[in-house]
Amino acid sequence: MKDILVYVRDSQERTPATYYGARLASAMGASLTGMYACPSPLYAAPAYEPELMSAIMENTRKLVSEALDAKQPFLDWAGSTGVPQAEWLVTEGDVSEALMQAATRHDLLVLDHAAEGEGSAWDIPGLVLKVGTPCIVLPRRNWHYRQIERIAIGWNGSPEAMRAVHSALPCLQGKQVLLMRGEERQKYSEVEWHPPFDIDAYLRRRGVSVVPHDISAGPDDVGQSLLEHAMKFRADLLVMGAYGRTRFSEWMLGGATRDVLTWADLPVMLRH
To answer: pLDDT-based confidence at 35, cuts 50/70/90?
Structure first.
């Protein structure tokens, strides 16, 4: 991971995603990009209300100007945290679309939740399902940075879980890793492998030793079970695939992914 992107919800304040991204970039020797997005005002007011539109346009110009002025303070702050290289991006337009475009140029996207009662023009679950880049989503509450030493992996044999594990490899070497094995999705695949894929051997070949742990939980309890075992392990990071409910409605998160994003008290690395 050489390029880490963080979505900065407030150009004037250091948000949780900003702090986490900087600490992670410093630890990994990676560059850090902070991105502030100002929603486009084009559809904010009816065209027949020119005074209101003019006020909205003026406010947008002010936000963009303030964000551009925040570049040097951000670069100075990032350097003071040990980040070897930093960049500051300001965009005007649809926030989700801007994040999706910027994410394609980075190895990891770090997101946090808006504060309770704070409006948001973007959607974390939908974004996680749409971007090809792995995402670390910080917990909604009780957040503080911890160096990643203990990692829990949720494994069910699916392509999403495999992509998540592959993305997490730079974080896994030399760490204590709990492999939580649920029901393998590949059992219902139209393709059979002889021999079946061995995730333990895959990780061992990459210098990662794991503590295996089988999880037995119903479909509605998988997310809670993953969180409980990760917390018992004292994990600093949970790695898992992000699943859509069906192939034709991937904008709806599967139950386990939704539950984890709602209730997690630790950062979660997800990939669809």
So the answer is: very high
Grouping H, G, I as helix, E, B as strand and the rest as coil, residue 271 is: strand
Q: Give 127-163 as a 3 state SS string.
A: HHHHCCCCEEECCCCCCCCCCCCEEEEEECCCHHHHH
Report the predicted TM-score, pTM, of the whole model to 2 decimal places. 0.89
Cα–Cα separations (whole angstroms), residue 168 to 34, 223, 271: 21, 19, 10
Q: What radius of gyration do the chain's Cα atoms show? A: 20
Beta-sheet strands, E only, within the chain: 3-7, 31-38, 85-92, 108-111, 135-137, 150-155, 176-181, 210-214, 237-241, 268-271
Please report, for residues 4, 8, 72, 110, 134, the alpha-carbon distance to residue 107 in angstroms, rounded to integers and kept in the order given: 6, 17, 24, 10, 7
The CA angle 133-137-143, to the nearest 5 degrees, is 155
Q: Which of 185, 206, 204 is nearest to 196 (CA)?
A: 185
Contact criterion met (CB below 8 Å) for 72 and 18: no
Cβ–Cβ contacts within 10 Å for residue 115, how many? 13
Q: How far apart are CA 99 and CA 54, in angstroms?
A: 27
With b meaning 16 or more CB within 10 Å and e meaning fewer, what string describes 150-172?
bbbbbbbbbebbbbbbebbeebb
Query: Model confidence over 36-57: pLDDT tens digits?
Result: 998 776 655 555 577 766 777 7
What is the dihedral angle through the alpha carbons of 24, 27, 29, 31, rounded to the nearest 10 degrees? 20
